[in-house]
Design goal:
single chain; alpha/beta; twelve-stranded mixed β-sheet; ten-stranded parallel β-sheet; 3 helices
Amino acid sequence: MKFKASQIAEILNGTVEGDPETEVDKLAKIEEGTRGSLTFLSNPKYTSYIYSTNASIVIVKDTFKIEEKINTTLIRVKDPYKAFSTLLEYYNQVKLNKSGIEEPNFINESATLGENLYLGAFTYIGKNVKIGNDVKIYPNCYIGDNVAIGDNTVVFAGVKVYSETTIGKDCVLHGGAVIGADGFGFSPGDSGEYSKVPQIGNVILEDMVDIGAGTTIDRATLGSTIIRKGVKIDNQVQIAHNVEIGEHTAIAAQTGIAGSTKIGKNCLIGGQVGIAGHLTIGNNVKIQAQSGIGRNIPDGEAIQGSPSFGYNDFNKSYVHFKNLPRIVDRLNQLEKKQHNG
């Protein structure tokens, strides 16, 4: 699909400088731009590329000053990076704008389907499922009994949503995610065997939640595992039973959160973080990658290490960690001097 510079400027509330009829049909990095492509300039260190790029249209800041001859049409906006992100989102919406029900699939007769539904082939819709308007469910998905999915939510291929799960509006579930599998509940017996503890709760995803590919969120033993509004979860994250994650918290890949831990609002959790069970993590907490959390964390803390401790303390201590071999050598030399009198 082709777009003219004038159309793009209208979407972005920008101003065209050059030919408003210039057309593009693809996106590119500024250093890799070719004819027919659209790119942007945000980082000043890439400024030189605007004079050599072959991109047909470049989005620039409204205060950008041209110092050499350019061969491209400009669209001036307040924030080029944000504007390009808006276009990426718009492009995705156009590219993924599917509708209709493909065959074969299974839809239980008790299910309620909203308007403008896209349902990919080989998808299973269970009993009493409620699906809102403008929902897209890609092929090979499983939607279990009594699941509710809100308006404008996208469920990509291969997602498994177990029974009783509630998913809000404007959510995105990427391929291979499993929502609502049993929590890891087993009771040890006298002879060392384990007995299964039934997991009869559910999972609740509130509005505007993003779930990465291969991420697993377990149902509660009792009650609900709750992912609050606006939470963003990366690929291959494990969230155990009865965990609660506060609004607008972001969690990077390969993090594991054990059962019944409560995480506050607006937290940033790096990759490969391990969080033990039954803890409370406050609001606005920042946890650096590969940290191990075994204690409660108050509001506003920055944490690093395994076992973790204060971020600033960790950085100070790390200087000494690196110098330990030299410190040990000096101690050995001092001991030799004392010994030799």
